[in-house]
Amino acid sequence: MKTIFFDLDDTLYFRRDAFYIAFEKFFNSLDKDLQKRSNDTCRIRGDEVFYDAQQGKITMEQMYIYRFQKGFADCGIVISEKEALDFQSLYKKELYSLKLNSEVIKMLNFAKSNFEQLGIITNGPVDHQWNKVKNLGLDKWIEKDLTIVSAEYSVDKPDVKLFNIASQKACKKTDELIIIGDSFKNDIIPASSLGWHSIWIDLYGESFIAPEYQVKDISEIIPVLKKFL
């Protein structure tokens, strides 16, 4: 039987949900279009400095300031450094309050019942990522020993070393492993290069060609997983 590894952020839960709630509270705005555009630009700006923060070239606070000041400015919203950090605090609070949605639960139940093991491979700080796993109640489905947090190993996706660590922990050959994630660069490319099966969740309508399976929504994953049974 095959083992499935999931990405965490924007795969098993969706950061945009917490962002939208924080945006509404912080700016007292119900402008859905502005919420969406701001989430997209802040995500892009955050990606620009994520690895610098992970490698200690800048502090986490500097990363948050850059992400939200630049991201909101791209949408015509000017905030101070203090306001950027205040938004991060509110966003983090909402992030930890999120629960798994019904489609994710349905998918996890199916995967747990039909596959040997389930794991997670995620980039990020140790405590931050483990708190998400705990608060979301993912230990009901996910093996603790197969939860791979990048900072614990001083290597980040898309480095294939992290996927090799996961493969060794699962005691599986590469063709017995499946990666499910939203990042084509960080999840799909490195896993596929090692011979893993892959299911790419294309949340943003990107123009990449999936090496194996591509879906637009979590609800489409169970029919794909049935192909592996």
Describe the 3D structure.
The chain is α/β, with parallel strands linked by helices. The protein folds into two domains: 140 residues, HAD superfamily/HAD-like (Rossmann fold); 83 residues, Orthogonal Bundle (DNA polymerase, domain 1). The protein has nine helices and six strands. A six-stranded parallel sheet has the order 3-2-1-4-5-6, with helices on both faces. α6 links the parallel β2 and β3. α1 crosses α2, α2 packs antiparallel against α3 and α3 packs across α4. The radius of gyration is 18 Å and the shape is globular. The chain starts with a strand and ends with a helix.
Which stretches of 5+ consecutive residues score pLDDT under 50? none
The number of domains is 2
Mean of all residue-level pLDDT scores: 96
Q: How would you classify the helix and strand content by structural class?
A: alpha/beta
CATH topology of the largest domain: Rossmann fold
**C-alpha-based Rg, rounded:** 18 Å
Kindly provide the name of the CATH class of the largest domain: Alpha Beta
Strand content: 5-15%
Biggest sheet, spatial arrangement of strands: 3-2-1-4-5-6
3D shape: globular
CATH architecture of the largest domain: 3-Layer(aba) Sandwich
Q: What is the number of helices?
A: 9
CATH superfamily of the largest domain: HAD superfamily/HAD-like
